[in-house]
Amino acid sequence: MKKSKITVKRIWKKETIAKNNEENSVSIPLDLIREILTRLPAKPLVKLISIAKLWYSTIRKKDFTDLFLARSLTRPCFLFTFSHAAANRFFFNSFFYKPPSSLHRNTTSYTTLDQDYTISTPVRGLMSCQNGSKVVIFNPSTGQVLALPKVKTRRKSVLSFLGYDPVEDVYKVLCMTMVQVLYQHRPFVWGEHQVFTLGAETKEWRRVDCHIPHFPATLGLCKDGVVYYGAWSDSDRNESLVVCFDVGSEQFRCVKLPNDVEIRTNHRSEVVNYHKRIALVEQSYGGVVDLWVLDDVEKKEWSKKYLVVPCWNDLVGQNYYFRCRGTISTGEFVFTPHSQPNPSFIVYYDLKKDSARRVEPEDGFPITNVFLNHVENPMFL
């Protein structure tokens, strides 16, 4: 009899607890859950999907990614890379623009990538990274890496760019394998061009035609479905131009630069964002910069801007070479070091106010590279 009493008592307690839980439970609308999740950094979302099926089904849906990205695009930030020679790794973290005297991280954790890769400019939060014929897509917000099929080529010179087509809502990787041949007794660049579409059913590289002989000379910048990059018409660098690759149509065209404007090596020339327009920067020392702004792609019209940052030597000293990286959402120009000063810092320049300021990351790590207008993307690869 004692055992049965105990059993009945335990069952009564369980039933009472379950009843109380049902009465006290609150059903949170799914729309509210999604709204809360979009306000989190992308990195914690990776952990949340392993906790419950609800999180998994919500976060992995494309409509959630679109909602998160729509919010993220309104709050662009810096993406900093730090190198660690002993670990042979790149460390990535994003920093907000706005603090006036220091840069504050979006998250306290870092994502990492093998240092053997050459890193491209982020496109909507994703990066194309390359090591020879091996190309991977890297999401620095989540730390995920997607290895693409190896590029089919025997050539050693392989270059890749990531682009996004807003019409079809797809990412594509453009890969070029270059070789130099002789044509009419002068060096001539000839290349094979291949495209890989992320998420396509056919997981392979496709050949595309390019009738513009050129050799890429800068990193690419994707804007409104077009990848822009500086190039030379041949390996003798007789003519400089900006090549435009339409991600949707997979067509190439070029815009010649004004006379006497040449693309130089070692980041002395870069394609940058200038108030949502494409511009070519000609770097120089002492805070002096020439900017060629592409005003009209169809008419191939350029205009020149000339910048002189005040009190430059007081801000950075005389021994460091800085690169103008373009403008950010605040309208300010950003300058980043070519080599690493100690402590690391960057320079903001407000053209309207003609004022400049020096800003340091809050943790003081040596900066390897800085990418502007980066956005967090929760997309799972």
UniProtKB/TrEMBL annotation:
Top-rank taxon, per record: Eukaryota
F-box domain mapped to chain residues: 22-67
InterPro entries given in the database record: F-box-assoc_dom_typ3, F-box-assoc_interact_dom, F-box-like_dom_sf, F-box_dom, Gal_Oxase/kelch_b-propeller
SUPFAM superfamilies hit by this protein: F-box domain, Galactose oxidase, central domain
Alphabetical list of PANTHER family matching this protein: BNAA05G37150D PROTEIN-RELATED, F-BOX ASSOCIATED DOMAIN-CONTAINING PROTEIN
Protein name per UniProt: F-box domain-containing protein
Record organism: Arabidopsis lyrata subsp. lyrata
